[in-house]
DNA sequence: ATAGGGTTAG
């Protein structure tokens, strides 16, 4: 692993700094001392301007700094925050360390702005240990230092550490503001720890923190991601001001909670308020459509995108491919896929799963090869698609090989989904003994879906003896599946053991296992309605 | 003149 940044070639520009020398030596020899931009404040304002540019003007900023040094001008406390911000955005760790040395040499390391920017710089560049060390030795850390370090931890996925800092602030009774609160809450969202989230919320109320729309959004998101969608929606309704992110958080919150109809209903409310959806909104809306099989609504999103000039690229493109693939219009999924400029592991995985689900195993496997050829590393989900394809096509040998390759070649640990695919594959192929053996030797605890697959295989091949054995194991599971009873009952019936068949049905009723009420959705004129068996149509 | 925050797919 090489840790050298791609900007290393600029390093020679940053020669050892001597503020008062008239000439600067670089690898290219002596550079004339000449002021191009006047005094230090002019340089600073140009640097500040650069931090606001859309593109990454790292070359420009470094050469500007270089020019400044060569002009014999001393950088001051206003120079470095801008410079560090520019370098942080590019993760130019090596250059930043040099700048850090310059800062120390100039004795500017005790400036609060510079210290905080250094912490931020190291945090952004992924060297969180340096960031935290700086924070620790910083005598005058303020609320900004705390927040910056919290963000640094979150950036590298150390959410517990991030929240630990907030708790420390609570214990020290330090002032917290809306920005600090956002950092803590978003770390909590990522952890999905509702208990912790509630604790933070209580503290926010006790301290009477003045919440702005960012903080409200973070609260809504925290409750949604931690599984309390009711509370999230209550806060959403009572918050004083909403923006597009608020709506997006609420829609994605409902999607996350599996409440797809309510997600679309919030989307409709958003439109009624005249708020135009952005990319993020459409991704969540497409996800809801995918899960509902709401093809017409999905098509509408696609048309809307075309009308508004939203390119089907990146996350949005992937969501569109997924929607078409799962809603049964595989040809459109392929069209969108082919129209995309860049395809990543998501794009490929969506289409591979799509092909596999449509019984097009060969296409799925071809696409998998194409993906590998393109140098895209597969992940766990890719293999769910690959194994599903093998299972449906009866490609047992290939499937077992791919299952083996997961860990051997790609270092991916198979989870219960993958084991389920293999059981399904062996079972469908009639290799019941092998399937049972495979389940016995699984390094993870089989769940009810595994037993279900095995039982389905027994039913398919009329193996009562094994079916009884499997059923026994299925009944040991904490959640009894109605499908298992029905499979077993049908297996008996198929084998002319009608009394046993009736017994199983009776036992199912005795154990109060009911077929889960059919819950589905339909679209009428592109409006998605949900209905449950026995219930009235409800929006 | 300079520093900290939110939403997105399989």
Automatic annotation (TrEMBL):
* GO molecular function, a single term: mRNA binding
Q: Which InterPro entries match?
A: E_motif (IPR046848), PPR_At4g14850-like_plant (IPR046960), PPR_rpt (IPR002885), TPR-like_helical_dom_sf (IPR011990)
Q: Which domain of life is it from?
A: Eukaryota
- Repeat is among the record's keywords: yes
Q: Name one GO biological process term.
A: RNA modification
PROSITE patterns registered for this protein in UniProt: PPR (PS51375)
**Gene3D superfamilies per the record?**
Tetratricopeptide repeat domain
Family annotation (PANTHER family): PENTACOTRIPEPTIDE-REPEAT REGION OF PRORP DOMAIN-CONTAINING PROTEIN (PTHR47926:SF437), PENTATRICOPEPTIDE REPEAT-CONTAINING PROTEIN (PTHR47926)
Tell me which NCBIfam families the record gives. Answer: PPR (TIGR00756)
Q: What name is this protein filed under?
A: Pentatricopeptide repeat-containing protein
**What's the source species for this entry?**
Rhynchospora pubera
